[in-house]
Amino acid sequence: MVILIAIQVFITLLFFIFGWAILKKEAYGIISGFATRPKEEQKQLIENGFPQKTGRLFIFTGLGMLILLPLSFTSFIYAVEVQFGFMLVFLLGGIIYLSKYELPHKRKRSYMISISLFVVVMSSLGYLSFLGYQDYKLVMKEDSFEITGMYGDEWKFKDINKLEVLEKVPEVTVKQNGFGTASMAKGVFSVKGYGSSLLFIKHGASLEILYIEAGNTKIFINGKDITETRGWFEQLQKYAE
């Protein structure tokens, strides 16, 4: 959580710095593609207020992020999702609005590109979020167990080398390939003392964590409550004997 807050503060500061540089220092080169335009086009865009509006967009995006920052210090588990969701929607929506200040002969194309970008980015994030937030289960089969959902897989009971219940997840240092938010961690993460591991963790659910070593794979998983986590542990103990 500390790392996520630090990232949010850093991004917020960047928005303020870029906005200030554009508005007060006329550092229009910060704006993507502006410096490569012909001087005449740059002059027309400045007269239209395009770079100035872009600077204000950065400032207001940073201000919104700053206003939402206190959510990270509350019990609201979707604080990070709300903060970065606001940033994307406001910023991409602002880019569409800025097309209004484009040069007349490029305005239509600008609208088409910015709207397409908005649809593609939001659709992709929506789909990935849907997959990431899908629930997972630990399912017992005849000679193996399976963890369902995104990043899930199947392992043989005979390959279980270690099985135990931990009171908490060890420190996670790096996300390697996974879905990590304030409410859930799912995928491959580097865990202190364990190395590269598969995590299926619902934050704020079961305080106990089931740790499984199956072959070369290290797995940390918890259920919706302690009863479900303990149930998985007891079932695996029985099948793995």
UniProtKB/TrEMBL annotation:
<dbReference type="InterPro" id="IPR017259">
    <property type="entry name" value="UCP037672"/>
</dbReference>
<feature type="transmembrane region" description="Helical">
    <location>
        <begin position="111"/>
        <end position="133"/>
    </location>
</feature>
<keyword id="KW-0812">Transmembrane</keyword>
<feature type="domain" description="Bacterial Pleckstrin homology">
    <location>
        <begin position="139"/>
        <end position="227"/>
    </location>
</feature>
<feature type="transmembrane region" description="Helical">
    <location>
        <begin position="6"/>
        <end position="23"/>
    </location>
</feature>
<dbReference type="InterPro" id="IPR027783">
    <property type="entry name" value="Bacterial_PH-related"/>
</dbReference>
<feature type="transmembrane region" description="Helical">
    <location>
        <begin position="57"/>
        <end position="76"/>
    </location>
</feature>
<dbReference type="Pfam" id="PF12650">
    <property type="entry name" value="DUF3784"/>
</dbReference>
<keyword id="KW-1133">Transmembrane helix</keyword>
<feature type="transmembrane region" description="Helical">
    <location>
        <begin position="82"/>
        <end position="99"/>
    </location>
</feature>
<protein>
    <recommendedName>
        <fullName>Bacterial Pleckstrin homology domain-containing protein</fullName>
    </recommendedName>
</protein>
<dbReference type="Pfam" id="PF10882">
    <property type="entry name" value="bPH_5"/>
</dbReference>
<keyword id="KW-0472">Membrane</keyword>
